[in-house]
Structures are given as C-alpha cells and as structure tokens.
Design brief:
Layout lengths: L2 E6 L4 H12 L4 E8 L3 H11 L3 E4 L5 H7 L6 E4 L1 H9 L5 E4 L7 H9 L3 E4 L3 H13 L6 E4 L2 H10 L6 E8 L17 H4 L9 H9 L1 H14 L6 E5 L5 E7 L4 E5 L5 H9 L31 H11 L3 H17 L7 H12 L8 H20 L2
Parallel strand pairs: 1-2, 1-5, 2-3, 3-4, 5-6, 6-7, 8-9
Antiparallel strand pairs: 8-10, 10-11
Bound molecules: nicotinamide-adenine-dinucleotide (NAD) and magnesium ion (MG).
C-alpha cells in the first residue's frame, strides 16, 4: 500500500526535495496534503502536479488567491496555522514530513504524534524548543519519529541493528560560510556572504544558522532528545568536506560512520522508506577524486553559540525555547539588514541573561516563553 504523506512546508528546500523523492517512487508514496507559508503560486503549481486532497496556506492573506488558482480542481484549500496542524493529524495520512522552519513546526509535530502518525522530522526546532514533550509523545497511538536532518539520519542509520549502549556520537559540521574567515572579520560580513554555504543549498535561516554554528548547537540538542544521550556523549567536529555525515562510537571503541556526497534526498528518502532502502539517482561517491577527509576541533571563541547547546542540556526547562526564539528574531533581523552578523550571538546571549528559566514547562509555558524571548530579543535589537 502507498504511504500517504502530509508534506508541511512543500515550497521550501526540504519540501521540494521531498517531492522529488515522491515523484521518483509514485508506486510507494502519495501526497495527501501540502502546506506553505506565503508562496501561494508555487504551492498551486505543486498541487496541480501532485493532486493532493488538500492544501494549506499558513498566511491567510493569500487564501483567496490560492482558492482562485485551484478553483477548477477538487483540491480543498484551507488557511491558517491551525489548519496546518489539522491536515497533519487527518485520518487519511500515514506519514507527516515536517519541513517547516522555526517554532511554527512545534504544534504540527505535536499534532502528528498525538494522532499516531509517523513523523519524518526535518524541523529540528520542534526538539530544540520542546524535546521533552515531543519525545514523550512518540509511541502515542502507534506514532513514531524518524529524523531527516542528515547528521541524525546518519546516527540513526549507524544504530540500525545495534542493541548495546553507545559510548558517544560524533556530529560533523561543515563549518558554514565563514569557516575560513578569521573571527575578527566576522563583524563586517554581509548577508550575501553569509548565505553562500560551501557544501549545501538550503533555506536562508538554516544557512545563517550553519555559519554561526547555531545549527550545530541545535543538532546537539536534537541528538540528546532523539537518542537519549548525556551532554558529554555528544561531540562536534568540523569536517569541511561534509562527506562523513556523523558517527557513532560503541563501548568496544568500534566506530560506525555514514558517508556519501551531500544530498538531502538521501536522508529524506530513508526517513520515508525505513527500514528499506530505495533506489536514488545519486552518483557513487568517488574516494579517489576526493581523497582527503579531514577533521578538526571547533574554535569555541569564534563560534560561542555551540557552548549554548551544552548550557541548554544542563539547564533543561525552557532554555532551548529561549535559544530558538532569540535566534529566530536575530537571524530575521540580520537578513533584514537591521543588525550586524555578530549581533546575532549578542541577541541570544542577552535573552539568556534576561529571562528566567521555567522548569518542567507545559506547551502553554513554551508558547509564553517563546513570545517573551522574542519580545526581549526585539527590544535589544531596536536599541542597536
Ligand atoms: P525553507 O525556508 O526553505 O522552507 C520552509 C518551509 O516552511 C516553506 O515551505 C515555508 O513556506 C514554510 N514556512 C515557513 N514559515 C512558516 C510558518 N510560520 N508557518 C507555516 N509554514 C511556514 O527551509 P528548509 O531549508 O527547507 O528547512 C526546513 C527545516 O528543515 C528547518 O527546520 C531546517 O533546520 C531543517 N533542515 C533543513 C535542511 C536543508 O537542507 N534545507 C537540512 C537539515 C535540516
Ligand atoms: Mg544537519
């Protein structure tokens, strides 16, 4: 039987690559619903190609235009954040691909798991903000969670068939756009430079997050929740080639790694096809053409954001929620040219310094802290 997919964030980088996977295996996968934030024309085009039952435009101001564009089809058109979570939980959906960016992904992740879906999760922010709640829901009504993030997919693949505890995981980091830029030059870098990632083509926010290593910090938190690890079991290494996607070291010192040419369709497809593997047109990795795989320690002075992940793991509660909210605001301000590049970290640090932590938060607490942290970050930015 075909897997029926709700694709949240179909117009984004992960969303479009998910559609490529579906297109390649029409006998295996079927898109039941697709959602986008504001790019309604692209969503309408995708809907005409994949003919889902429904589409959702999260920004309701585009509802009329999208409805009009699909008026001659049977596709149902909805609008608003709640509709995104509703299509994820719908009865005719087997798998939810959550390819939303930011805090907006949390509610749909929760809704998917509560409704017993398999959640193929690209939206790492769900776990950064509320990993305790999200992981606590895995198994409800038979629900499951499979990671799409390439590092976590690599770890997940290394763990298949293993039953013994792990010694540690080694999460690799490309180093992002400024890996070869001296720390003292970072205050003058431009948005265009920051958006030029050496190895991956991704959405704007995650490209900035990769350059600050906030993305890697988020992935440390993500790994903690997905694989139940202690902070000292998660190591990060800079690996400029992005060929080793991550590694697991076992108790006997044996290390398993998952390798390949950087291509997000691999982890996306694996999340959908697990435990099977499906054919993909990715070329074989050529070791002789790429004989150098190198690793080095992260410069913690140049990349202070990475230590915040370990701070969040130690503190727990709403620390990750504050981290995510302040970062979202700061990255948007940087992309909007309202602050400089190094102000991103300063904004996050300010939010941590200003806001108290809530232990054992509920989803309502997370929503409140998300609002507060955004307000505090906006205030800080307005004064700069
Ligand atoms: P993107 O910006 O390219 O796409 C985001 C999608 O979410 C778009 O379809 C957009 O319409 C939708 N969206 C944005 N804000 C929304 C909101 N408030 N409400 C509803 N929908 C909204 O982002 P991306 O690069 O595809 O990343 C998506 C997620 O996957 C992120 O969490 C990112 O960290 C993670 N991820 C991405 C990659 C990658 O290669 N792009 C790799 C690993 C993990
Ligand atoms: Mg990643």
């Amino acid at each position: 039987m075909k897997q029926r997919i709700a694709l949240l964030g179909s117009t984004g980088s992960i969303g479009c690559q998910t559609l490529e996977v579906v297109e390649r295996h029409p006998d295996m996968f079927e898109v039941i619903s697709m959602t986008a934030h504001s790019r309604w024309q692209q969503l309408a085009e995708q809907a005409r190609q994949f003919m889902p039952d429904s589409v959702v435009i999260a920004d309701p101001t585009h509802y009329a235009a999208l409805s009009e564009a699909l008026a001659d089809t049977d596709i149902k058109v909805y609008a608003g954040d709640e509709a995104v979570a509703q299509v994820a939980a719908a009865g005719n959906v087997d798998v939810v691909v959550n390819a939303l960016v930011g805090y907006a992904g949390l509610a749909p992740s929760v809704a998917s798991l509560r409704a017993g879906k398999k959640l193929a999760l690209a939206n790492k922010e769900s776990l950064v903000v509320a990993g305790d709640i999200v992981m606590g829901l895995v198994g409800t009504e038979g629900s499951a969670l499979v990671p799409i993030d390439s590092e976590h997919s690599a770890i997940f693949q290394c763990l298949v068939g293993e039953h013994s505890p792990v010694r540690k995981v080694i999460v690799t980091a490309s180093g992002g756009s400024f890996r070869d830029t001296p720390a003292e030059e970072l205050s003058n870098v431009t948005v265009e430079q920051a958006l030029r990632h050496p190895n991956w083509s991704m959405g704007a926010k995650i490209t900035i997050d990769s350059s600050t290593l906030v993305n890697k910090a988020f992935e440390v938190i993500e790994a903690r929740w997905l694989f139940g690890l202690r902070p000292e079991q998660i190591e990060v290494l800079i690996h400029p080639q992005s060929v080793v996607h991550s590694m697991v070291e076992f108790e006997d010192g044996a290390i398993k790694a998952q390798l390949g040419t950087p291509d997000m369709r691999v982890p996306i497809q694996y999340a959908l096809s697990f435990p099977a593997r499906l054919e993909l047109d990715a070329p074989s990795f050529d070791f002789l053409a790429n004989p150098e795989l190198t690793f080095r320690a992260v410069d913690r002075v140049k990349y202070p954001a990475l230590d915040l992940a370990y701070h969040c793991l130690r503190e727990g509660g709403t620390a990750g929620c504050i981290f995510n909210a302040a970062n979202e605001v700061a990255v948007a301000a940087f992309l909007g040219r309202r602050i400089g590049y190094t102000d991103i970290y300063k904004t996050i640090a300010h939010a941590f310094d200003t806001l108290p932590l809530v232990a054992r938060p509920t989803l309502d607490d997370y929503a409140e802290v998300n609002r507060e942290a955004r307000r505090v970050a906006e205030q800080f930015i307005a004064k700069r």
